[in-house]
Amino acid sequence: MGKITEALKKVTDDRLTRIQKKPEFEYVVKRLENTVLDQRLVSFHDSTSPIGEQYKILRTNIQTLRRKQGYKSFVITSSIGGEGKTVTALNLAIAMAQDSGSKSVLLIDADMRKGRVAKYMGIKSQRGLSELLQEKVSAESVFTGAGIENLTFVLSGKSPKHPSELLNSKKMERFLAACRTKFDYILIDAPPVLPVTDACILAPMADGVIMVVQAGRTQVDAIKHAETRLYQARAKLIGCVLTNVEYHVPSYLHRYINKYDSYYRYHEKEKEFEREGVMS
Predict the structure, then answer these.
(1) Residue 153 domain-assigned?
(2) Domain range holding 65?
(3) How would you write the chain as a 3-class SS string?
(4) Of 58, 190, 228, 229, which sees the most CB atoms within 10 A?
């Protein structure tokens, strides 16, 4: 048993090492100057990059749901915190707003506990969903922009004492119903499913739910538990977005990437290719 235990420990240690080690090469995003937007908003800073293209693929999938089934409102959540749901929601919203179809997009920061949309967008904190649901401000006053055409935000506002009760209200239902008449697409950034009930309250109010999962971190049991809770809430889970994925790029594709995306660089791989005589 000693050898079996030792072998299992070695396999576990090797897996943890693969998860925790830093990538051997670095992806570099071209950050636009004179903007306060967070660099992780690739759809804004570097929309033609390979990562930016992935958000466009997600955009296309959502547009297909709109055409075929009439879906226009989506809750974006995760099973646990820190999986990249807000960054995903923002990148998707920006990608959708950039579409040549010029559809109006609304992103609601419904995480009134730890809302971060304002931080990533560089917007000064102001009244938002929290104040609206407490009837401290009018619906018209909570809509804000950040200089991106076709994209409107509703920030989370000041953290209230009972956020789940505010979300589970007729006021919230009426607000979302009104937004459906004003915008072509509505994205709702909700808190994680497992720690709090907020996402399960919001999910049935939308046409579909997109769950963000971080590769190498989120446990399968946590994902299954989150899916069960959403199912019990009568929500419609339409798909998952996998974040923190590392791709291996074959050498024969490297010239193609460099030719069509001058900002997408694999520094360590370039050195390796030069040593092998692959690159000229």
Answers:
(1) yes
(2) 48-243
(3) CHHHHHHHHHHHHHHHHHHHCCCCCCCCCCCCCCCCCCCCCHHHHCCCCHHHHHHHHHHHHHHHHHHHHCCCEEEEEECCCCCCHHHHHHHHHHHHHCCCCCCCEEEEECCCCCCCHHHHHCCCCCCCHHHHHCCCCCHHHHEECCCCCCEEEECCCCCCCCHHHHHCCHHHHHHHHHHHHHCCEEEEECCCCCCCCHHHHHHHHCCEEEEEEECCCCCHHHHHHHHHHHHHCCCCEEEEEEECCCCCCCHHHHHHHHHHCCCCCCHHHHHHHHHHCCCC
(4) 190
Segment 95-137, tens digit of pLDDT: 999 986 768 999 999 999 999 999 999 888 778 999 999 999 9
Q: Is the pTM of this model over 0.85?
A: no
Q: How many domains would you assign to the chain?
A: 1
